[in-house]
Amino acid sequence: MSFLIRTDLHITTWVVAIVIFLIASFMGNKSKGLHMTLRLFYILIIITGLILFNEGRSYGMGMLYGFKFLGGILVIGMMEMVLVRQKKNKSTVMFWILFALFLFITLFLGFKLPMGQDFLA
């Protein structure tokens, strides 16, 4: 099970989820199958994120990894809100802005913390 501790699986799941989210959001009301697939990826993201969170606590930075985990949950929440409100033909501008903000914060923490890729050095 050591392959689950690597960040590659987690990064792959959220990259695929963001691509599916963007496709589903631009398809509008015709994206029911994509929306269900995206929900499966939400679960995979949360599972791999929990595994990495448990591993990250051994670095002595449990609180920062906790903030990253919370940011990831908020990103998933905003993705879901955009798609659901879009299906109900309600305004999604605020949720797109919050999605971008939470995604930036989560990516920043993910790349800055010791287990992440060192893109921001």
Automatic annotation (TrEMBL):
Q: Does the keyword Transmembrane helix apply?
A: yes
Task: Name the residues that span the membrane.
Answer: 12-29, 36-53, 65-84, 93-111
Question: Topology in the membrane?
Answer: Multi-pass membrane protein
Supply the InterPro entries for this chain. Answer: UPF0344
> What single Pfam family name could you report for this chain, choosing any that match?
DUF1516
- Could you name the Gene Ontology cellular component terms for this entry? plasma membrane
Is this entry keyworded Transcription? no
Keywords tagged on the record: Cell membrane, Membrane, Transmembrane, Transmembrane helix
At the top level, the lineage of the source is: Bacteria
* Subcellular location field: Cell membrane
Q: What protein family does this chain belong to? A: Belongs to the UPF0344 family.
The name this protein goes by in its record = UPF0344 protein QNH24_04070
What lineage does the source organism belong to?
A: Bacteria, Bacillati, Bacillota, Bacilli, Bacillales
